[in-house]
Design goal:
Layout lengths: L5 H4 L16 E5 L2 E4 L4 E4 L2 H4 L8 H13 L11 H13 L4 E7 L2 H17 L10 E5 L8 H6 L3 H4 L10 E4 L4 H4 L6 H19 L4 E7 L15 H11 L3 E6 L22 E4 L1 H4 L6 E6 H9 L14 H16 L2 H20 L5 E7 L2 E6 L36 H9 L6 E2 L1 E4 L8 E5 L7 H19 L8
Parallel strand pairs: 3-13, 5-6, 5-7, 7-8, 8-9
Antiparallel strand pairs: 1-2, 2-3, 4-10, 9-10, 11-12, 12-15, 14-15
Helix pairs in contact: 3-13, 4-13, 9-10, 14-16, 15-16
Bound molecules: pyridoxal-5'-phosphate.
């Protein structure tokens, strides 16, 4: 069941995701809908890859881009600045209450991660007593930080790494993610689970040489590879404490979770931690421009200010005025239209409806999320429970007797990709994000919903109805008799 049309493959010069066909062609995008050339209006419940957070075709952002084009379409940021770059950077530093002091704007999440890795290394080279032996990073298994070689090196997603493994940096190692559904023991409390993960990080520092590590990299809310997994309370604080003990930087990748998606502008605001370096992207520009950014804390800025005073990194398109103008206007729309509040409210409603509609499905193992990102994890043999996150954000589903299984479908069954392709068919007309490898990096299927922050209750009902139909079409409608 493929969303691609084989006959068009030979006509297209595009290197599509599949060489075997072309995906549906989109001719218009408005609000929550993408219109195909066949006239089908696809309900965009995924915002692409969790990007289009204010919907499509917002007139204010389009106007802001046009105005910027009329003023300055491009200049080279190492030599010049623009009002657009200054305004966006000021907005971002202000939004952190000044704890993040400088902003480097780039064109994608992976580029922001690359910049963070380089900035971390430079920080240690510019300390009053430099620490050149610090060349390593510790990140997490099944994480995703991008597809460039540096960002993929730090990513722990096995399936995305495998064929490039020999080309990836050997200086990146991985510890377990905070993933209560699969990682927490049945008799463990949140505190014990957090303590075990902190010990694992401590052990990894010791194993690689604690004074060789530049930083620990984690997604604040694990995104598309684990499916909207909020951390167990206290987890990020505990991880930061381990970093502080060893003088390493605490780096949060909020490319996915940041800019409102999880119910606060910065996902770390809900965790009582402040990162030394932070990356953002998807919700920053909402898809109106290709844009990401690195936010740099005062501690790091202070060291560079006393050192070379120059970040040894630049790109032809960094600080691009069109990207900055679009991102700034997106953020004003989010503020003026109260969209983060709506994200929290509609997120809770989305979670509620998903639980009602799919919570007892035989193959739905877990439904989890925060704000407007929800993941439905699909297991061959499922055991339903959800622990470790706050009750209103993570659906608390009863523990069943045979919970030891949680066996995923084999990756060869292509369950999530088939649900995705089914959703795109005319009779379902919904765009969902398929995820894989959630169980062990290879097996384990996920469907992620990440609609725009301005969805209404009616939109949410439509999303859940269509998503459930697509899922049930592929998996059948069986309920778990034990529930
Ligand atoms: C947490 C996280 N970091 C980095 C990236 C890479 O972003 P991009 O695809 O814009 O390079 C992603 C993309 O999904 C992501 O979810």
């Amino acid at each position: 069941m493929s969303a691609t049309i084989a006959s068009e493959a030979t006509l297209s010069s595009v290197l599509h995701a599949s060489l075997g066909g072309s995906p549906p062609r989109i001719v218009a995008a408005r609000g929550n809908y993408l219109r195909t050339e066949d006239g089908v209006d696809i309900l965009d419940a995924s915002g692409g890859a969790a990007v289009s957070c204010i919907g499509h075709g917002h007139p204010r952002v389009i106007q802001a881009i046009k105005d910027q084009l009329d003023a300055v379409e491009y200049c080279f940021s190492p030599w010049f600045t623009t009002a657009a770059y200054e305004r966006l950077a000021k907005f971002l530093t202000d939004s952190t209450g000044g704890v993040m002091q400088k902003v480097f704007v780039c064109s994608s999440g992976a580029e922001a991660v690359e910049a963070a890795l380089k900035m971390a290394r430079q920080y240690f080279m510019e300390l009053a007593e430099p620490q050149p032996q610090r060349t390593r990073f510790i990140a997490r298994d099944r994480s995703y930080h991008g597809n460039t070689l540096g960002s993929l090196s730090v990513s722990g997603h096995k399936a995305r790494r495998t064929i490039y493994e020999p080309m990836l940096s050997q200086n990146m190692t991985h510890v377990s993610p905070c993933f209560a559904y699969r990682g927490m023991k049945a008799d463990e409390t949140d505190e014990q689970y957090v303590a075990r993960l902190a010990q694992e990080l401590e052990d990894e520092f010791q194993r690689v040489g604690s004074d060789t590590v530049c930083g620990f990299v984690a997604e604040t809310v694990a995104g598309l590879t684990l499916g909207g997994v909020p951390p167990v309370p206290g987890y990020l604080k505990a991880m930061k404490a381990v970093c502080d003990k060893h003088g390493a930087l605490f780096i949060l990748d909020e490319v996915f979770a940041g800019m409102g998606r999880t119910g606060t502008l910065h996902a770390w605001e809900q965790e009582g931690v402040v990162p030394h370096l932070q990356t953002i992207a998807k919700g920053l520009g909402a898809g109106y421009q290709a844009v990401g950014a690195l936010l740099v804390s005062k501690q790091v800025v202070d060291v560079l200010s006393k050192g070379t005073k120059a970040f040894v990194h630049f790109q032809t398109y960094h600080g691009h005025p069109l990207a900055c103008a679009a991102a700034y206007e997106v953020q004003q729309v989010i503020k003026d239209e109260g969209l983060i509040e709506n994200c929290r409210e509609m997120g809770a409603y989305l979670g509620e409806l998903l639980k009602e509609r799919l919570g007892s499905h035989k193959h739905v193992g877990d439904i989890r999320g925060r704000g407007l990102v929800w993941g439905v994890s699909i297991d061959h043999s499922s055991a339903r429970y959800c622990r470790g996150a706050r009750a209103n954000e993570c659906l608390q589903i009863e523990i069943v007797k045979d919970r030891q299984t949680k066996q995923p479908f084999p990756v060869t069954d292509k369950i999530a990709p088939t649900i995705h392709a089914t959703g795109l068919r005319k009779e379902f007309a919904i765009s969902l994000i398929p995820g894989g490898g959630v169980a062990d990096g290879t097996h384990g299927d996920l469907i992620v919903l990440a609609p725009a922050y301005n969805v209404t209750k009616m939109d949410v009902e439509l999303i859940v109805g269509r998503a459930a139909k697509a899922i049930e079409h592929v998996l059948g409608g069986q309920r778990d008799a034990k529930l």
